[in-house]
Amino acid sequence: VLVVCVVFGVGSARAHENVEKLRHWEIPSKDPDRIILTFNGDPATSRAVTWRTDATIEKAVAQIAEATVNSKFQDHSVSEDAVTEPFDLGLYKSNASLIVHYHSVIFDQLKPDTVYVYRVGDGDARWSEWIQFRTACAEYAPTQFIYFGDAQNDVLAHWSRVIRQAHQTAPNASFVVHAGDLINQAHRDYEWAQWFKAGGFLHSQCTAIPVVGNHEFTPLGGKKSPRRSK
Ligand SMILES: [Fe+2]
C-alpha cells in the first residue's frame, strides 16, 4: 500500500506542475471548450461539431433542435452520442503532459435553410451554451462568407481584433474560411488556446473551413520549429 501511495503522489505532483505552467484558459476541464462547427457533406443538411474536455469525460453527447423564438426547443432536442478520442498533448515537447479528450458528432438529416440550436456536453450537468446556426439553402442562393489569411502570429493579442471586427462587418456570413497558417508552431497547444480564445464563440456558430498551411505541419521531435514567418 505504501508503494502505491508514493507512486501516486509523484504522479500527482507532476500533473500539478504541468498545470501550474498553464494559463487558466489553456487548462482542459469537465466543461466543453474549443467547440468548432465544420462542414461534413451537404451544407444544407449536415454539420459536424468537435470539442474538448479533460480525460475524465469518457462519454459525451451533442443535442440539437430546430430553433424556436423561446426556449421550448429544448423539449424537442435530439441527443447524439459523440466519438471520443484521447490525445496526449505531451507528444510535443513544449506542451504540458496532459491527456485531453476530443469529442465529435455529425448532425445529418437537417432541413435546408433552417435555424438549428445545439449544445455539447456530458449528457448530465456539464454543458456548453446553446449555439445557433442556419443550414444552407437547398438551391442556389446568394451567400456571404469571411476569408482570413494567415492568423498565425500573436493570435490572441492581434488577430482577436480582426475576427471580432469581421463578425461585426458580416454578422450573417454563412461560413468562414481560415486559410493556413492558423497558428505558427503546429503542435504548440498554447497557440491553439489563443486561436480559440480570440474567436471561440464564433468558431462554434459560424461554420469553419480550416485550411491547413505549412505551419500546421511540423515533425514532433528533432527538427526546429518553423521560424516566425509568412
Ligand atoms: Fe503563413
From TrEMBL:
InterPro entries associated with the record: Calcineurin-like_PHP, FN3_dom, Metallo-depent_PP-like, PAPs_N, Purple_acid_Pase-like_N
Protein's UniProt keywords contain Signal: yes
Record-linked Gene3D superfamilies: 3.60.21.10, Purple acid phosphatase-like, N-terminal
One Pfam family here: Metallophos
Keywords annotated in UniProt: Signal
Domain Purple acid phosphatase N-terminal: 32-135
Gene Ontology MF terms: acid phosphatase activity; metal ion binding
Record domain Calcineurin-like phosphoesterase: where: 154-219
Database matches in CDD domains: FN3, MPP_superfamily
Protein name, entry field: Calcineurin-like phosphoesterase domain-containing protein
Organism of origin: marine sediment metagenome
